[in-house]
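Below sits my pick:
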Amino acid sequence: MLGQRLDSTTLEFAPIRPTDAPQPPQTDACHAPETGEIHMSKHIIAAVALAALTTLPATAPAQSKGTKPMQNIVEIAAANGNFKTLVAAVTAAGLVETLSGKGPFTVFAPTDAAFAKLPAGTVEALLKDKAKLTSILTLHVLSGKVMSSDVVSAGGAKPASLEGEKLNIVVRNGGVYVDGAKVETADIVASNGVIHVIDTVLLPKPAMAGSH
């Protein structure tokens, strides 16, 4: 810009010709600043564009670094205040590592309120009986990721649980039910599967429960 200003100053000191004579030097002097201004505008626009391009990539990584990785099934349940009994049961049964694994799994997760509906003393007794507790908990788990839309579009399903017993999943009155337990919240996606919140604890069928 200093060079352009010096040129303009030099041209101003050029000899002044009569007004009725051709004035090419004055014409050049008049156009030189305009051309310089155009060049300067182009340089400014280019500089602004370059600044924008160099700023955006620097901002994006900062945002991506702050993004937390998706939690697994156990982490989601532990972070939610409504699954304290379920988390305690999973821990007592030694299933934390399994349900934190790659999966994918589908878990029908009973809330604390669902466990509270069991007869008094049932939860405490189960926490001391690892085999029975494991049987009940694995009844709530499917191998594979089953979304609610899969069940609704199929009109229901009868998948086998990890425990081995088949679950009867039906769609009625606009809701989804698993062996009679209502799905209160569906499709809580985890890094290793999906959680569906249910309002009742699933128990093995009487025939299986009666076998010792």
